[in-house]
Amino acid sequence: MSRRFKWATMLVLGAAFSLWSAPVTAQKAQPKPRPGTSSKTRDVEPPILPAETAGRSKSGSEFLRPPGESRYDPDGIDWRDVPPWKQTSFFGIRAKGQFFIYVVDCSGSMIDEDRLVRAKRELRRSVLALQHPQRFQVIFYNDRAWPMPGDLPRSADLGAKSQMFHWLRLIEPDGETDPRGAMGLALSLRPDAVFLLSDGEFPDGTVEAIARKNPKKIPIHCVDLSGGTGGDHLQRIARDSGGQYRSRPQTDGP
């Protein structure tokens, strides 16, 4: 057999082998569909959510949030993003800042339903939770103001907190209800927020007098321990200052 004939034979056999193996290779390259799916299903790309929609889904439903996360938060603040030393709470009202003043009613009616006892208990809890560099001041009032001795904002350290706890034992319910003097003193110190607690009606003109003393609109968060008609005054004070109002009358618990 000549060399030319051998080369021709090899070319023919090679071409035949290529034609025979091509379909097999293509068939092997195509993966088998999974059971219960089709090629059309695999070709459809998953939808991409817009950034706004993704953000909403990340936050989750209001009903799935941890209890208390935004219950007392009309502005929708995520309190997990606020450092502990820049916030506090009092009877369920949460506020941002580093300097808070508590203006608490100690008039004679606060003896009813242990209101003064409840106020002192919550005051201890709130002040104890404050952290450096936060500051605080406490002013009790009946028909006059009774500020914590020193008249100056206290640093949120253990010494100042201990002094406040001892001083609270001296406060007893007595007298009438007029917060104007106490609120004038509180607002003059320019805190980040004021908590005003009461259980009764104020004298005529109290709401307007407090508004005049608060041109900078320092938030005044108001707590009503009686749930009575005095709450109307507290609601107006809170609304005029951009604060919050809560009614916390005695129920079954402390």
CATH architecture of the domain at 72-247: 3-Layer(aba) Sandwich
Quaternary form: single chain
Percent range for helical residues?
25-40%
Q: What Rg, in angstroms, do the CA atoms define?
A: 36 Å
- Proportion of residues in extended strands: 15-25%
Count of DSSP-assigned helices: 8
String of helices and strands: HHHEEEHEEEHHEHEHE
Q: Structural class from helices and strands?
A: alpha/beta
Task: Give the termini separation.
Answer: 114 Å
- Overall 3D shape: globular
CATH superfamily caption of the domain at 72-247 = von Willebrand factor, type A domain
Residue stretches low in confidence (pLDDT < 50, at least 5 long) are 15-72
CATH class of the domain at 72-247: Alpha Beta
- Average per-residue pLDDT, rounded, comes to 78
Number of strands: 9
Please name the CATH topology of the domain at 72-247: Rossmann fold
Major β-sheet profile: 7 strands, mixed
Could you characterize the architecture of this molecule?
- With 254 residues, the chain is α/β, with parallel strands linked by helices.
- 37% of the residues lie in helices and 16% in strands.
- α4 (115-129) runs antiparallel to α5 (158-168) and α7 packs parallel to α8.
- The strands form two sheets. Strands 3, 4, 5, 6, 7, 8 and 9 form a seven-stranded mixed β-sheet that branches.
- It has a domain at 72-247: von Willebrand factor, type A domain (Rossmann fold).
- The relative contact order is 0.12.
- It has helices spanning 3-29, 39-43, 51-59, 115-129, 158-168, 180-188, 206-212, 230-241, and strands at 87-90, 93-96, 99-105, 135-141, 145-147, 154-155, 193-198, 220-224, 245-247.
